Amino acid sequence: MRAPADPRVTWDLPAPGAMPRTADLEPLVTRVLAPNASGMTLDGTNTYVVGAPGSGQAVLVDPGPDDPAHLAAVEEALTAREARCVAVLVTHHHGDHAEAALPWGDRFGAPVAAADAAVAGPRGRVLEPGERLALAGTAIGVVGTPGHTADHLAFRLESGAVLVGDHVLGRGTSVVTHPEGDVVAYLESLRRVHDLGPSALYCGHGPELTEDPGAVLDFYLAHRAFRESQLLAALVRGAGTVDALVADVYAEVPRALWPAAAQSTRATLAKLAAEGHVVVDGDRVRLP
Length: 288
Ligand SMILES: [Zn+2]
Prior knowledge:
single chain; elongated; binds zinc ion
């Protein structure tokens, strides 16, 4: 099996580190980039300010790190939209998306809504997949996208754009965490977002994907299948531990990302084991 080609290589996307701090993506959406760039967060966390122009209101999606410079940039974006924050939505519980949710919710007097009750907090709201939220003069659909984490949600806007959190990243591929994540659920979630026919994917990290979102989702599905075939091939070659599999399959990836690769590998092995294709015993892995 050949490595599937990433359709974005021919797109005109900003180079890593070259994303603007604040960008108006469409009338409904302004994006504010948090100053927390890293190997795992790419350019940094994207915070989205969403609302109908003229409504005087906006929703924050993924406030990100509780950082004063980031807060100032988000408040500036709210002011530019002549909007006050009426709710804080969170795609999943990871700190790079959720840390500022409760403190900023308090600051703005706005409820926090998320699938994870701990993220939503005592005065917040626990979201269910399939809900439709009427907020800030617009409708926001809640789309269940478990896989990266168990609580992961995406948010579909009236424009057809989908805010996908870490389900899909603007560059490269995402991680299925282990033991919380779930590869089977992740694949179903990719198909679910694909079936929405999104006009754009606004990712938790990296640039917006507008040219052909469906092709990126197809690539993500093909990439997962390719990783499975690589793991099975590495086992045939004699790799017998999770570490050996990671060293084999992720040889071309910087070592700093191997811990994340090991999580995705364990998550994929759990799927292959459930299907009877491998036997996993702690760190040891073999073909049946
Ligand atoms: Zn993230």
